[in-house]
Design brief:
single chain, mainly alpha
């Protein structure tokens, strides 16, 4: 996510046609699907854990409340950008990934609420993911949507100047992530978790392979763009997201094992950098966009060679890690009350 924005903001025009830049664009393009996938994963896991103490209905209400907070944050983030950037007032109604995330989380919370049976919930999430994905090319070409106000139409399909994100197909990543969250929560033993992680890796790689193979078949839609609306590209990216879950588990294992291997040579074992930044992903999103595109990053706007942009990305990630650790220390024992509770998804 940080690399996507930093390279886009800082890389000079002369390097934007290079093969390395195109590779970084493809890799960075996985940030948004992963962001949404993990939001769905976290929502269903958290709801399942809360259900054990406050009941199914209570857990669903908390999930809906958290979704509403994220949607409110989307408008607060846009207001912040408006105040700092002095752009046109119409920018306030732009649709960004947080808008899509908030509404998709609401939909996922409602789906989760439909049944106390995990198997039924997984089936419902699978159906919802499929419907969103397979209908995307049709939604993109639906002439009747042009009659809607642009601020509403932009939530359904991309509009130039309004958004590159829309509920179709982006909400599908969040709904699919909820399936992973249900499965992970259901794994109660180490052996079950190992089988699950292996299964997720196999399913993820299979999704990539099948999606890639399907991309060479004749299209079943009158109009479909592989890179934007095609279900085949969606399932390729979903396969990557799914495979990243066991890969992340492997990184976590490595972090836990590293102090045992080299602890005798270090006065202080290394922290879990990836996990720390992952837990604070919404906070990182909130602050780094202004750092990259706003006043702080303006002197570098499209001036750096690609290699310098990549180095700058690494340095920025290091700085963000330090800021996150400072934020975590400051928030210990702090309870957000009243209107400040809307910032809970960002700060807690």
């Amino acid at each position: 996510m940080v690399g996507a924005h930093a390279n886009d903001a800082w890389t000079r025009d002369a390097d934007r046609q290079s093969a390395l830049y195109m590779l970084t664009v493809f890799v960075a393009g996985l940030a948004a699907p992963l962001f949404l996938f993990l939001a769905g994963l976290s929502l269903s896991m958290a709801a399942s854990m809360r259900a054990a103490t406050i009941g199914h209905g209570g857990a669903a209400r908390v999930a809906l409340k958290r979704a509403a907070q994220v949607l409110a944050l989307a408008f607060l983030f846009r207001l912040q950008s408006q105040l700092l950037g002095w752009g046109a007032l119409s920018n306030f109604l732009k649709v960004d990934i947080l808008n899509v995330m908030g509404l998709a989380m609401m939909a996922a919370a409602l789906v989760w609420r439909c049944s106390e049976s995990r198997a039924i919930r997984i089936a419902l999430f699978a159906v919802a993911t499929t419907l969103v994905t397979m209908s995307t090319p049709l939604i993109r070409e639906m002439g009747a949507l042009s009659a809607l106000p642009e601020s509403i139409e932009a939530y359904l399909r991309p509009l130039p100047g309004r958004t590159t994100f829309a509920l179709f197909p982006w909400s599908g990543f969040l709904l699919a992530g909820a399936i992973a969250g249900e499965l992970i929560h259901a794994a109660r033993s180490h052996s079950q978790e190992r089988r699950l992680q292996l299964g997720l890796l196999v399913c993820g790689l299979a999704g990539i392979g099948l999606g890639y193979a399907a991309s060479f078949q004749p299209a079943i839609y009158p109009v479909a763009n592989f890179w934007t609306s095609s279900p085949t590209f969606f399932f390729i990216r979903l396969g990557v997201c799914t495979a990243m879950v066991p890969i992340a588990r492997g990184i976590d294992w490595f972090h836990n094992a590293l102090p045992r291997w080299i602890g005798g040579y270090l006065s202080r074992p290394p922290g879990q950098v990836t996990a720390t930044l992952g837990r604070a992903s919404l906070f990182v999103y909130w602050i780094h966009v202004e750092m990259v595109y706003g006043v702080l990053g303006r002197p570098l706007r499209r001036l750096l060679p690609l290699e310098a942009s990549l180095v700058g990305t690494a340095l920025l990630c290091g700085l963000l890690y330090v800021i996150v650790r400072w934020k975590d220390r400051m928030m210990v024992g702090v309870t957000l009350t009243g209107p400040l509770r809307v910032f809970a998804p960002v700060l807690k």
